[in-house]
């Protein structure tokens, strides 16, 4: 399994998000507490939105905790939306093209979890990908396969429905192959304006996922924390693990649900795979 975090809000230094929290995503690359693996050292990636028309992506096969380039880059970037991911491979090679987040146009996608017995499912999944999208697939992971299935089913127009259809098809393929619980995932995807997050597994026992409490409420709870004064009113974090032990700061995303965060609005809804195509 892997660890990931997503930030949305006013522009902030990436260094503050990646390195300063007590249990930052960098610390989680070595000392994860809630995942199946303590160490997530099979590469990392960050994706962020700046002045260009598409997000920038920086990835490496090095462990995040020892990559000096990551720290150098992080000190020079301010962004209103950041995806960060540290990888623990579930069997596919440790190579840059398999590091998250994945990008298509303005869209980013990252994942924690696995598709059970993916090598047996891969052919049928790939055959369902839109032929026009297929040449854009660079790596060999189950994550990227699920991303391109979601794109095939209309991710850029209706993310919740597209992910539900991609998951539903994956479960159908898996069960035809005798896989009882094919899907285990927490997923984040974004177009730069909204972050959608999903927590679901076929067996109903999904990896952890949390979102941060409203900043105004946090300031009332913890007036001693100067860092909260530097965050705008729309600031939200979605994380595999809380970044620090702060009472009232973190809320668990319910298992079997999806939600979104955009400026001035956030919602959570039940997630149900759509089967049949």
From TrEMBL:
Residues 2-277 form the Glutamine amidotransferase type-2 domain. One of its GO terms (molecular function) is transferase activity. Keywords: Glutamine amidotransferase, Transferase. Pfam families: GATase_4 (PF13230). The keyword Oxidoreductase does not apply. PANTHER family: GLUTAMINE AMIDOTRANSFERASE DUG3-RELATED (PTHR43187). This is Glutamine amidotransferase.
């Amino acid at each position: 399994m892997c660890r990931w975090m997503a930030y949305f809000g006013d522009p902030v230094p990436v260094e503050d998000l990646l390195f300063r929290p007590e249990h930052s995503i960098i610390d989680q690359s070595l000392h994860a507490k809630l995942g199946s693996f303590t160490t997530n050292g099979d590469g990392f990636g960050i994706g962020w939105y700046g002045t260009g028309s598409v997000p920038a992506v920086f990835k490496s096969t090095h462990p995040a905790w020892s990559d000096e380039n990551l720290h150098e880059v992080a000190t020079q970037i301010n962004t209103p939306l950041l995806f960060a991911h540290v990888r623990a491979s579930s069997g596919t090679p440790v190579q840059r093209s398999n590091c998250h987040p994945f990008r298509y146009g303005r869209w980013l996608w990252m994942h924690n979890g696995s598709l059970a017995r993916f090598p047996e499912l891969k052919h049928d999944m790939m055959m369902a990908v839109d032929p026009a999208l297929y040449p854009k697939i660079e790596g060999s992971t189950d994550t990227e396969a699920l991303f391109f299935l979601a794109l095939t089913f209309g991710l850029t127009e209706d993310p919740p429905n597209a992910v539900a259809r991609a998951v539903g098809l994956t479960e159908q393929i898996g069960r035809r192959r005798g896989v009882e619980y094919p899907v285990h995932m927490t997923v984040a995807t974004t177009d730069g304006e909204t972050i959608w997050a999903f927590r679901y597994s076929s067996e109903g026992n999904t990896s952890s996922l949390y979102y941060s409490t409203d900043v105004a409420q946090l300031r009332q709870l913890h007036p001693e924390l100067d860092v909260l004064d530097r965050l705008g009113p729309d600031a939200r974090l979605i994380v595999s693990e809380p970044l620090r032990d702060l009472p009232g700061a973190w809320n668990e995303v319910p298992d079997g649900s999806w939600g979104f965060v955009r400026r001035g609005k956030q919602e959570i809804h039940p997630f149900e795979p759509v089967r049949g195509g």
